Amino acid sequence: MDWITLLRSLQSDFLSRLLSGSLLHCQIEGQHSELTVISGERLRGLRDFCWQMAEKYKRVSPVRDVFISFLKGKLGEEVVRERLAGLITEVDYEKRIGGDGNVDFTLSGNPLVGVEVKSRYGSIDRVTWSVSAEEVAKNAVIVCVLIQENVHEAQSQYHMILAGFLPTAMIKLRTGRISFGIEQLLYGGGLSCYLQEFSSNSQGLLNRKKYPGDEFVRNSQKIAVSEEDKNPSQSLAELINSYLKTGDDHFARGNYEVAVSRYQEALKLDIDNSEIYYKIGLSKYHLKDYDEAIRDLVKVVSLNPHHLQALHKLGLARYQGGELENAIALFTQALQINPHDARIYVHRAEVRSRLGDNQGAIEDYHQAMKLNPIIAENQEYLQPIGIHPEDVEGFRNRGNSRYDIGDFTGAIQDYTSALQINPHDADIYYNRANVKYDMADIKGALDDYNQVIKINPYDAEAYFSRGNLRRESGDKQGAIEDFEKATELYRQEGKLAEHKSAKEQILDLEIEESLDILDF
Asked: Which DSSP category does 88 fall into?
């Protein structure tokens, strides 16, 4: 029996005991324990740190939200610190202020080896943990902790479960994110032994092939440059610009996950560059990963409090998350920097309207109209000038404008009106599909992409977009077929960059299917 099979078997036994409440509990630091209880002075110390963080970031986030977010993370880290003791670095609160760079601990015997801790609260049968490509790239293991009590400022005691761990070598993910449940984890009792191999050998990262299934070499402090980006003669600035340009190109084509990976490579070389954080946050916003976008945009504002675009986009991300009052505060802060941006007035008006502040919404709409009638006239409240009932281009153009400012409902209405006049316009179907996708109307978006391909079976962009949609929906085989078709069409059209991007998507999917971490 190999070590992975053994740890999976132990995880099955652990889950049975977890359901019955019969967990192993050892209070000796450095010894394995399935249960860790955090209370008293230790909890007070964690709380004090989290309140400091809440005070530090109160300008861009509600104090309580920051406190809760940090406390969840610190509780999980405290579990791992106690269980692994001297095997890993101690938590250094002062050094960690401002972010940990997606590495929570490094091994005492080998500082090149990172350990990332993920803490979650939820029921055993539904809780999931997720990791990003950057976290996978920077760490040797992901350790998952389950919090049994709902985290809040008044809780006096927490019962923390070491839910298990995953070696990142088993997560074959180059872009995007992946999620897993407790049953996919390896038993936490094997974590210390697994990490000791790295500590006992300074070349541990190179020697890990002795473990079944491990086929990677990673050094988190080296610059990971892909073959397409290598150029020995490049200066540091040129290399950063090369990564940024590649990221910008992918961003422009809507390949946001690839863009994020390129921007993150640039960030490794210039870790306090607010513009790179902004590019990453903006890409994650387009991926609808609003929590991660907020994290990066908060970092932008902490580095540059006058970054207008970051404040505006951070407000939109908060708005998407239902934090209406916080969104208004951010829009107001942005308008203090630039009181002539009509878009921000429009967005603040929308939030005020949702909060029932109709008078405030009216004032903001009127101000937006004064500054930019073209943007403002597309809001339903302002009753825009009518379009002739047979004017396809009029509906198309107004739909495009509404889409640009985030008025998805209005955009769909205009695209639908245009299609009622001309039901054979593939471009309008494509635009409407994109809006529906942004609104999470997966079925509606799929129907429209299907219609585009029915009208024009040689539309490479439609195949590529439908492939992304199918991939997100879990239809990996359908996604591969669409990306293969897009690859063929891009090649015929001579679009080399797009052709390469589609091939990368196929490779990612084939790797996921061949190793399929979710089917342990």
From this structure: B
